[in-house]
TrEMBL record, chain A:
It comes from Pseudoponticoccus marisrubri. This is Peptide ABC transporter permease. One of its GO terms (cellular component) is plasma membrane. The chain crosses the membrane at residues 25-45, 120-141, 153-178, 218-237, 280-304, 324-345. Signal peptide: none annotated. The keyword Membrane applies. One of its GO terms (molecular function) is dipeptide transmembrane transporter activity. Pfam families: BPD_transp_1 (PF00528), BPD_transp_1_N (PF19300). Residues 114-345 form the ABC transmembrane type-1 domain. It is a multi-pass membrane protein. Its main location: membrane. PANTHER family: D,D-DIPEPTIDE TRANSPORT SYSTEM PERMEASE PROTEIN DDPB-RELATED, DIPEPTIDE TRANSPORT SYSTEM PERMEASE PROTEIN DPPB-RELATED.
TrEMBL record, chain B:
Keywords: Cell membrane, Membrane, Peptide transport, Protein transport, Transmembrane, Transmembrane helix, Transport. This is D-ala-D-ala transporter subunit. InterPro entries: BP-dependent_transpt_permease, MetI-like, MetI-like_sf, OppC_N. The lineage of its organism: Bacteria, Pseudomonadati, Pseudomonadota, Alphaproteobacteria, Rhodobacterales. It comes from Pseudoponticoccus marisrubri. Residues 101-290 form the ABC transmembrane type-1 domain. Belongs to the binding-protein-dependent transport system permease family. GO terms for biological process: peptide transport; protein transport; transmembrane transport. PANTHER family: D,D-DIPEPTIDE TRANSPORT SYSTEM PERMEASE PROTEIN DDPC-RELATED, OLIGOPEPTIDE TRANSPORT SYSTEM PERMEASE PROTEIN APPC.
Length: 353, 304
């Protein structure tokens, strides 16, 4: 909506402003508005909390003078709009305040836990893409065949299964009964502290340092939660791939290509698939964003020390600064990925120009 | 027999003689299409069973769902007259499941009463009014859409306090934007049709046009979307319950039951597994029914 609006404004300014500049400006405006909205919502959530922010800082036994001083210090005597301004300023400088639970800056905490979530979501998305895209393409090509039914079934189950429950059952079967994978946690206790962190993602760090025993242990810990998340993105990615491919396969150029006598493989991968690549990248980006968020419940089940666990534990400890900080980080990434896929569409799809 | 034949003929006539007959006929034909879809009927049946289980829970339950008996704790299914076994406090899981169905239905019903209605109002107002109202409302919708849903629900529940009603409110607050988008898209296509112009010329105001002539046409797309979203709503509610932010113990909410059974998963698998199967069946049923309804109400979408 804002794009159209900006385009209209741009139209009034006349031709001198090039199209790309106008579009970029519109995008920047959209991002800014959305992020401001995000901050406003978290700000309001922070304000309607039944917890007194002053008491949270100074404790129950403070005197009235101390209370009043902190009250002013936190800017709570200012009008709400001014408070919001202060809040936005703080967040822009990366200050989410101190965590009551850990006693550290929320920013420090998040920097510490985020790589774990990133690692999990990335591996999950990889699994989803590697299995989901071929499955979707095959289902579209052999529409109505058994493989199409399988794809449909996989999707249905994925959309209907409570992820935390599937995680528990997975732990029961693969860890409890079969013993194929390691249990909850990120790394066995004997392997901790061996690898000096570089990226914070244990698999990457261990590989970079050549510590393959650590790598194997970490892999055996991550594979079950990653496969679980991978299954969810697989359900989404294969379903979307199938419908994109069907759209292409039903168009006339595909018929033309077939009439010309091109091999079926060439028609499918060289023609139809080429045309869904951009759509596919946007879907994968969205699936990735969903996994970053969807990892909250998975992290709890697998005692994975990521952002999801951090937010939930803070929540149960009434540590609002951490909860809101985490929400803003995930929200911002979410918005960022949305905008990224939007831009991709705009710049690479000739029809959008 | 002859009356049912007559009724069938009346419903299937090519030339309906009244508005009511035409409307009933459309419903009946839709029902026939839906009935031919085996999976959708299966979903419907599961939901009917759920509804009956919830209504007749006191009759069907073999034990008091809240009665603890520590001597009978963690019994396997079938042991000691407990159909699905007992949990860590010796409560009968089967009876708790039945009463839990009531909570699930309660949550779903509340969300359905709030989210689509909010979405419908925002979407149609934005679409019909246009201009800056449209920009403002849609920007707001986009902001909520850009939010990660579960995280937002978590933050809301954190602010409002844990409990079923607050969980419902949090889910509704995160669920309305897609409905607003759909309603707006429908409104934009309807807004400039001739019959709307005709009504406006007859002197109908915006309120009348929107509520009487645009809303009815948005309903079918919304119903499909709501049915398909139902699974997601149930899963989110169960997730909140699992995290301890939804229904509070000792309430037999299914997500909370899984959470309670989590500690015993390796020794007493049934405590956490059985409520999960219940959640799965219900959301699968909603997905199957939603797919079927989409085929009936929106044949074009169903093809792809």
């Amino acid at each position: 909506m804002a794009d159209q609006n900006a385009n209209q404004t741009g139209g009034r300014l006349g031709p001198p402003v090039p199209l790309w500049a106008r579009k970029s400006l519109a995008t920047v405006a959209t991002v800014a508005a959305t992020l401001l909205g995000l901050l406003f919502v978290t700000f309001m959530i922070g304000r309607v909390m039944p917890i007194d922010p002053v008491l949270a800082v100074i404790g129950e036994r403070a005197t009235q003078e101390q209370y009043d001083a902190t009250f002013r210090e936190l800017g709570l005597d200012q009008p709400l709009l001014v408070q919001f301004g202060i809040y936005v300023g703080d967040v822009l400088q990366g200050e989410f305040g101190k965590s009551i639970r850990t006693g550290q800056e929320v920013t420090t905490d998040i920097a510490r836990v985020f790589p774990a979530t990133l690692e999990l979501a990335t591996l999950g998305t990889l699994i989803g893409v590697i299995l989901g895209v071929p499955l979707g393409v095959l289902a579209a090509v052999r529409r109505g065949s058994w493989i199409d039914q399988v794809a449909r079934f996989v999707g249905l189950i994925g959309y209907s299964m409570p992820i935390f429950w599937l995680g528990l059952v997975g732990l029961l079967i693969f860890y409890g009964i079969l013993g194929w994978v390691a249990g909850p946690g990120r790394l066995g206790i004997f392997y901790q502290g061996i690898v000096e962190p570089i990226t914070g993602m244990i698999l990457v760090d261990a590989a970079l340092r050549g510590e393959w025993t650590v790598f194997r242990n970490a892999f055996s810990h991550i594979i079950l939660p990653a496969a679980l998340l991978g299954y969810y993105s697989l359900a989404y990615i294969s379903r979307m791939t199938r419908s994109f491919m069907l759209e292409q396969l039903n168009s006339e150029y595909v018929t033309t290509a077939r009439v010309k006598g091109l091999s079926e493989r060439h028609v499918i991968w060289g023609h139809a698939f080429r045309n869904i690549r951009i759509q596919l990248v946007t879907v994968i980006a969205l699936a990735y964003a969903n996994l970053l968020e969807g990892s909250v419940l998975t992290e709890i089940i697998f005692a994975w020390p990521g952002l999801g666990s951090y937010i939930t534990t803070s929540l149960l400890a009434n540590d609002m600064n951490s909860v809101l900080g985490g929400t803003i980080v995930i929200g911002t990434i979410f918005v960022g990925i949305n905008i990224f896929s939007d831009l991709l569409y705009r710049f690479f799809d000739p029809r959008a120009k | 027999m002859s009356t049912s034949q007559g009724l069938r003929a009346w419903l299937l006539t090519e030339e309906p003689t009244s508005r009511r007959q035409a409307r009933m006929a459309a419903w009946y034909k839709g029902w026939l299409t839906l009935r031919s879809n085996t999976l959708a009927m299966l979903g419907l049946m599961v939901l009917v069973v759920l509804l009956l289980a919830a209504i007749f829970a006191p009759l069907l339950a073999t034990h008091d769902p809240f009665a603890q008996d520590l001597g009978q704790r963690l019994l396997a299914p079938g042991e000691g007259g407990h159909l699905l076994g007992t949990d860590s406090l010796g409560r009968d899981i089967y009876s708790r499941l039945l009463y839990g169905a009531r909570i699930s239905i309660y949550i779903v019903a509340l969300v359905v009463m709030v989210a689509p209605v909010v979405g419908l109002i925002v979407g149609t107002v934005a679409g019909y009014a246009g201009g800056w109202i449209d920009v403002l409302l849609m920007r707001m919708t986009d902001i909520f859409l850009a939010f990660p849903r579960l995280i937002l629900a978590l933050a809301f529940v954190a602010a409002l306090g844990a409990g079923i009603e607050n969980a419902v409110l949090a889910i509704s607050l995160t669920a309305w934007p897609p409905y607003a988008r759909i309603a707006r898209a429908e409104t934009l296509t309807i807004r400039n049709s001739d019959y709307i112009h005709a009504i406006r010329l007859q002197g109908a105001g915006p309120l009348r046009i929107v509520t009487q002539h645009i809303w009815p046409l948005c309903i079918s797309s919304l119903v499909i979307r709501v049915t398909l979203d139902m699974a997601g709503i149930i899963l989110t509610a169960a997730g909140l319950g699992f995290l301890g932010l939804g229904a509070q113990p000792p309430s037999p909410e299914w997500g909370a039951m899984i959470s309670e059974g989590r500690k015993y998963i390796l020794d007493s698998w049934w405590v956490a597994t059985i409520p999960g199967i219940a959640i799965f069946s219900i959301s699968l049923a909603f997905n199957l029914l939603g797919d079927g309804l989409r085929d009936v109400l929106d044949p074009k979408e169903g093809q792809s």
